[in-house]
Amino acid sequence: MQAVSDRSQFFQGMKAGAPFILVIVPFGLLFGVVATEAGLNVFEALAFSVVVIAGAAQFTALQLLSDNLPAAIALISALAVNLRMAMYSASITPHLGHMPLWKRAFAAYLLVDQTYATSVLEFEKNPDRTPSQKFAYFVGTASSVVPLWYASTIAGALLGSSIPDGLALDFAVPITFLAIIAPALRTLAHIAAAFTSIVLALVFMGLPYNLGLLIAAITAMAVGAEVERRMTAKAA
């Protein structure tokens, strides 16, 4: 009975993650094109996507390396862009943290913006699900996103400059994050953190090595946490 239930949760997760196909494919195509223009071959572009599996960080690192900046700077900047993954991990740990080590490691690898946003909202709506059911749902959401990220990277790398500029594949980047962030702005703390990050990212956008993103991310987390602390104290 448990196996059937887990299977059902997997397909529900796959269905929930399916809408992201509309942005994952052009996003991956764009990265494949940019990667080959930067001098990577098809295998290197695919390896980049498989190992890092984080679009925004991949674009950041690739751009900085293309500008002949030190590898250490590229790594630090990419880590700054991916700092949100630490928050995702902390948020989803109560739901998946009791799984066996190999499942936690697998979930950590599959933890990207789309799988986190889709899964955590569902888990909060249905907290009575077992850890096994939650894991199945989470992997289901990833099955709609991750394989297509690999495939579209390969397609973009193979097609390269033959993709017409008129397709404007770069629209996928902002659309992806808007689709993820908007449903998550459910409390004043969320809104305060988002607003802070936007304002500071714009204010410090001129700083070298993407340091403005690091400042914006850390400050936004602090503001969100403080707003939530005050709301909790007021409610108590």
Automatic annotation (TrEMBL):
Recorded GO CC terms: plasma membrane
Annotated TM spans: 20-40, 46-65, 72-92, 135-160, 167-185, 191-224
Keyword Transcription: no
Keywords recorded for this protein, A-Z: Cell membrane, Membrane, Transmembrane, Transmembrane helix, Transport
InterPro entries cross-referenced by the UniProt entry: Brnchd-chn_aa_trnsp_permease
Domain of life: Bacteria
Coiled coil regions, renumbered to chain: none
Any one GO BP annotation for this protein: L-valine transmembrane transport
Family of this protein: Belongs to the AzlC family.
Cell compartment(s), UniProt: Cell membrane
Record's signal peptide: none
Membrane topology summary: Multi-pass membrane protein
Protein name (database record): Putative membrane protein
